[in-house]
Amino acid sequence: MADETNIEAEGVAVEAVATEGGEQREGRGRGRGRGGNDRGGDRGGRGRGRDDRRGRGDGEDGGEELIEKLVHINRVSKTVKGGKRFGFAALVVVGDGKGRVGFGHGKAREVPEAITKATASAKKKMVRVPLKEGRTLHHDGKGRFGAGKVNVRSAPAGTGIIAGGPMRAVFESLGVADVVTKSVGTSNPYNMIRATFDALVNQTSPKSVAQRRGKKVADLLGRGGASAAEAEAEAAAITE
What we know:
alpha+beta; Double Stranded RNA Binding Domain; 3 domains; four-stranded antiparallel sheet; four-stranded mixed sheet; 7 helices; 8 strands
């Protein structure tokens, strides 16, 4: 009986060990499977999600191509109980090259996801800026945000984009071909972008001013000493 009991006990122990080993092996296999699938799924999902969001954004905008400019990436950290968690913050400018532009920023644990969030935020906050002849601004302007100050000036054809850093990305996405700018104060890209947008949203066109004042565009353009025929021709050439 003792031998049978020992054999039975040993048999149970062997089965238990086999079961535990099987569970452990199965658990390890699951862990590997989950880990591999999670990592692969996340990476694949992030890549596909970014493409899908671009496709949906383009579809919502009437199938037009959007220009995306990555302005700045900053590594950020959050102090928690176990130490520090590092992430990335991205600043993106999006425009259609035809007078619409927007900017957004996003944070994530990885760079591609942060860029995706920033791009989605920029597409939601796009604004329309009137352009003269589709290449430059109608008039000079000033913008300010915090310690950042910018001056923007319209320029004749062939001047090009005289701007640096974040401001160049804004005007390239906007579709401006000739402009002269100057940034005074901070070099923080976030404040420079916001100051530039402050100057752009205050841009007006002769057409909008004429509608607001209840007059004709030719009446406004003819006050600078131009003849009536020249004012009519210039008014007919204005589309924005």
